[in-house]
């Protein structure tokens, strides 16, 4: 049985990835700061094939403590796939002149620093596997921006750069890729207290050549593809329904 570890597993894309791989018959470890969301995930998946420790993956001591639990849980088995998904979902930081350094650092730590800390901690476990992979969940905002999203864009751009650097450094034993989600509707994949089912406008769907807004399941399927794509590493895969290649004018 193969094993995957997903950060930011409690809600949204992380929850969908964790659930998808569980349905494929994998053992799953899901990390998140949101203990309430993890409790729901634990109840849905069970502890026979899952481990769900509360962890702030942007904090070095928390990552070290949590990986002590992961090592014990694996009991000598390898970690086959790591997904660095954690991050602050809201990209808007406000006006640059009003952005405090501490707030900037929160975006950087939640995504970029977390990916560094977790990958470093997971490395000995990944090296046990015959064909290990790491997928970093970046964003299309790594290559295109909206106003006032400085810290989010910088964190995701850094994650893209970390991806190709890791691929060169850890290959061939470990392949490392990134997924850049576009507009993904995560409402149905939130914990029960925050779950929603938005009704999007026709023009929102038409903004995408694929004809719809993305779903977290789309990202989960892409992670599964990248894990089995033996000749793909150091790549950045846009999963955005074609939105980033369509010219959109204001009217």
TrEMBL record:
The keyword Protein biosynthesis does not apply. The keyword Oxidoreductase applies. It holds the Pfam family adh_short_C2. It comes from the Bacteria. Residues 189-212 are annotated as: Disordered. GO terms for molecular function: oxidoreductase activity. Keywords: Oxidoreductase. Gene3D superfamilies: NAD(P)-binding Rossmann-like Domain (3.40.50.720). Residues 192-207 have a biased composition (Basic and acidic residues). InterPro entries: NAD(P)-bd_dom_sf (IPR036291), Sc_DH/Rdtase_CS (IPR020904), SDR_fam (IPR002347). Belongs to the short-chain dehydrogenases/reductases (SDR) family. This is Oxidoreductase. It comes from Qipengyuania flava.
């Amino acid at each position: 049985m193969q094993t995957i570890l997903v950060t930011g597993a409690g809600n949204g894309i992380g929850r969908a990835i964790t659930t998808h791989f569980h349905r494929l018959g994998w053992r799953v470890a899901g990390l998140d700061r949101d203990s309430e969301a993890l409790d729901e995930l634990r109840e849905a998946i069970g502890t026979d094939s899952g481990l769900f420790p509360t962890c702030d993956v942007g904090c070095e001591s928390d990552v070290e403590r949590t990986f002590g639990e992961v090592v014990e849980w694996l009991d000598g088995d390898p970690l086959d796939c790591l997904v660095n998904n954690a991050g602050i979902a809201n990209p808007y930081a406000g006006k640059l002149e009003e952005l405090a350094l501490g707030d900037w650092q929160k975006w950087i730590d939640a995504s970029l620093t977390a990916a560094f800390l977790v990958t470093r901690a997971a490395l000995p476990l990944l090296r046990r596997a015959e064909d290990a992979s790491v997928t970093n969940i970046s964003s299309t905002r790594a290559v295109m921006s909206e106003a006032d999203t400085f810290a989010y864009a910088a964190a995701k751009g850094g994650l893209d750069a970390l991806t190709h650097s890791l691929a060169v450094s850890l290959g061939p034993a470990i392949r490392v890729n990134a997924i850049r989600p576009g507009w993904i509707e995560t409402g149905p994949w939130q914990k029960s207290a925050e779950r929603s089912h938005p009704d999007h406008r026709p023009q929102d769907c038409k903004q995408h050549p694929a004809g719809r807004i993305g779903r977290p399941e789309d990202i989960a399927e892409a992670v599964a593809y990248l894990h089995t794509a033996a000749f793909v590493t150091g790549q950045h895969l846009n999963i955005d329904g074609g939105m980033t290649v369509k010219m959109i004018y204001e009217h």
